[in-house]
Every structure is written in C-alpha cells, then in structure tokens.
Amino acid sequence: MQMRVSPQARKKNPALPEYWQVRAVTYQVEGNEKTVFTSLPASKFSAEQVATLYHERWEIELGFRDIKSSMQDNALTLRSKTVDLVYQELWGLLLAYNVVRREASQAAVAHKRAPSEISFKFACQHIASHLVVMAGAVSPSHTPRRLEELRGSIGVLFITKRPRPARPRAVKMSKTRYPVNRKAAPLK
C-alpha cells in the first residue's frame, strides 16, 4: 500500500519521496477488529509480531500518560532547571511509577483480580498518603504489616469495566472558524 508523504515532512526534508510503502496489519482484540499501518518489512516481522509490538507500545504510552496526568498533575514541563536535576527528577518519577504499579499489582494478586482493573490515579494518591503515615512510624518493624494493610486497602480502588459507546469516535465540528476571546467582557 502507498501513502503520501505529508507536505510538512517534505518541507523539512525535500529528499523524501512523494509516496512511501506501508503495510496494513489487521487483527482482533476482544472481538473488535483493529488495523495498524507499519513500515516494518513483512519478511522480518509477522503480523502477530507487529500486533504484539503495537500493544506493548500502547502500554508504554498509557504509562507515560499516567505519569504526566496523575503524578505531575498535567504539568507541561519538569520543575528542575539544570540537566542533573532533570535526570534526577525523571528517575524519581520512573521509580515512583514502578513502586505504585508494583504495589497495585501485588494488591490485585491478593484480591485475585487483574492489575489493569486498579485505577492508577487513585492507587497513586492512596499509596502516597499511606507512605506519609508509614514514614512517621516509630518502629520500622511494623513496615511489613503496614504494607499488607496498604495492599488490602487498595482493594477498594478496583474499577468496573465500562461498556464502549455504541457509536464510533468522531471529531466534533467547530462552531466557529474564528478564535474566541474568553476574557472579553459580557455584552450589556
């Protein structure tokens, strides 16, 4: 299959061809048919491998979304100003993300549920509040018991699977072609 190279890409790199070759990989997920376009050669990557790679990549993207929305409160930038502190902040975010995911998955196993059924946002808030309490504990010998209590209390954070909407997603039409001044004074 051929797809046209975007004008923006050709403007950045005029050496690009007008068309590029892609292949469509179609597969089933929970009864729904999905199609992925890829430039990976069919001789090296089977359709099953492409589908698996796509899902792994999708899980990574969801992890990034969780970090940005739940752990950083939708901040557009990091707080650090120097390169070393940016690295430190990124490592801290990744470490905290993995701690929350691990504790949530341990709680899911304890409750005989899938780890994906626990809300990351609420698990993050719940674990953060418990860690503050645990940090103030007098005796470190109580930590294993408190971790067990934490995993038991995460059980209330399971989310129910919502049904998919009956109609497919669509881009809504804009009501106006002109920018709206939201700071304008109301008409009298």
TrEMBL record:
SUPFAM superfamilies: Ribonuclease H-like. GO terms for molecular function: DNA binding; transposase activity. GO terms for biological process: DNA transposition. InterPro entries: RNaseH-like_sf, Transposase_11. Residues 10-98 form the Transposase IS4-like domain. Pfam families: DDE_Tnp_1. PANTHER family: TRANSPOSASE INSG FOR INSERTION SEQUENCE ELEMENT IS4-RELATED. This is IS4 transposase. It comes from Pseudomonas syringae pv. actinidiae.
